[in-house]
Amino acid sequence: MALIRINPFSDKPYISRVIAFEIPIWRKRVSLQLVINDRLIVIFSIALTLVALTQFVRPTQHTQIEQVRLVEPSNPKFQDDAIGYSLAYYENLNTEEIASEFEAQKNKFLMQKQLLITDYLIKNKVARLEQLKDSELLTLNREISQLFIVGVLDKIQTEKHVYHFLTDTTNLRKIETALMEQVKFNIPASIKLSQAALETAYGRYIVHNNFFGIKDKNNSTEPTITTEYYNEDEMKLNKSKIISSKRIEKNGRTLYKCKIKDSFAGYKTPWESFRAHSVFLHQNLRYSPLFTKGKDYRAWADRIGSTKYGGVGYATSPIYGELLKKIIERYCLDLLDH
To answer: In tens digits, what is the pLDDT along the chain, a chain of 338 residues?
Structure first.
C-alpha cells in the first residue's frame, strides 16, 4: 500500500509505504508491518553516513611543520625578548622538511624571477642590476616582491603574523627595500629581512623605528629595557647594563638570559633604519669579512654572531646565526638573493 502527498512541509510524511512480512520463529510464524516514510529514510541516511565517517576518517596527525603553523608564541611573554620569541618558535623546526615540501614552488619562483631580471637587463641594455636606473630597479623590485608574495608566501602557509610583517606596506615595503639594499650594498635580502624579523619579533617590538637592534653609542635616546643572551665573559663586560640574569642551557652551551637597560638608535622612518643598517655593515671594518661570503646566507648567518664563537660580533647571542637560518629557510627568503 502506498500513499503520496503533495505538500512537503506538512508535519505528516508525504511519501509513505507499509511493508508486511512474516518471520518464522521456531515452529511459529510472526507477522510484522514496517512503515517506511521520508523521515525514516533521512534518519537511516544520516546513520549510514556517520558509520562511514568513523570507518574512513581518522584523527589528523600533524607533522612537525604543521604544528609550527598552528601554534604562535603569546606576545606578552616575549614583550622585551625578541630573540626568545623566535627561539621558542623555531628551535625544533625541521627546515629540511619544509624545503622538500615546497620544492616545486621554489623552483617555479626562481625561474620566473630570473626571466624577469633578464628581461629588464636586456630592455635597458645593461649587464648588471646595479647599472639600472633607480626608477627601473624600483619597478623590477616591486614585481619580484609581488611574485614572491603570490608564488611563495601564499603557497607555503605562512603564519598570519609573519605574512603581515613581510607584506604590510603601511610604513615600508620591506621586501622591495631589502631587494634595493641588496643591489646597493651587497647585503643578501634574506639576511636583511631575517634580521629585521628576529630583532623585532616580526614587528611586535620596535623601538624608535629601529628594526635591527643597533645601539645608540651617544646615549641620545631614552634607555629601554630589553633581553640579551650572553656567555659568562660577555655578561661580565656588560655588567653595568644588566638588571637581572638567569642561567640557561641551550644546545650544549651555558648562556645567561639578561635583562638590560640600554639606549638604541632612533630613526624618523623605518626606511631610514633599513638604510642605516646597510651603511652600518658596509662602513664598519669589523663586518668586512661578511662581504666575502657573496650571497651565501648560511655563511653570513654563521659569521654575524658572537665573536666568542668565531663571529664578527653584530650580536652577542651564540644562537643568533642559527635563528637567522631557521627564519630564512622557513619562509624561503633565500629565493630573494641574487
So the answer is: 444 344 444 454 445 555 555 555 555 565 655 565 666 565 666 666 665 555 444 433 333 333 333 334 444 455 556 666 666 666 666 666 666 777 888 899 999 999 999 999 999 999 999 999 999 999 999 999 999 999 999 998 899 999 999 999 999 999 999 999 999 999 999 999 999 999 998 998 888 999 999 988 877 787 887 777 777 777 887 888 888 888 888 767 788 888 878 888 999 999 999 999 999 999 999 999 999 988 999 999 999 987 766 788 888 777 889 899 999 999 999 999 99
End-to-end CA distance of the chain: 80
Judging by beta carbons within 10 Å of its beta carbon (0-12, 13-18, 19+), is residue 330 exposed, middle or buried? buried
Grid coordinates belonging to 216: 645608540
Cell 663586560 appears where?
A: 237
Contacts of 19 (CB under 8 A, 6+ apart): 33, 34, 35, 36
Q: Phi, psi at residue 316, to the nearest 5°? A: -85, -25
5: helix, coil or strand? coil
Look at residues 259, 180, 194, 250 and name the one whose alpha carbon lies nearest to residue 227.
Answer: 259
d(CA 338, CA 326): 20
Question: Cα-flanking dihedrals φ and ψ of residue 29, to 5°?
Answer: -120, 130
Per-domain boundaries in the chain: 2-56, 68-99+138-336
The phi, psi pair for 32, rounded to 5°, reads -130, 155
The architecture (CATH level 2) of 68-99+138-336 comes to Orthogonal Bundle (1.10)
Q: Distance (Å, rounded) from C-alpha 91 to C-alpha 72?
A: 13
Coil, strand or helix: which one is 295?
coil
What are all long-range contacts of 316-319, with beta carbons under 8 Å and residues at least 24 apart?
316/228, 316/229, 316/230, 316/231, 316/234, 316/238, 317/83, 317/228, 317/229, 317/230, 317/255, 318/229, 318/231, 318/253, 318/255, 319/83, 319/87, 319/229, 319/250, 319/251, 319/255
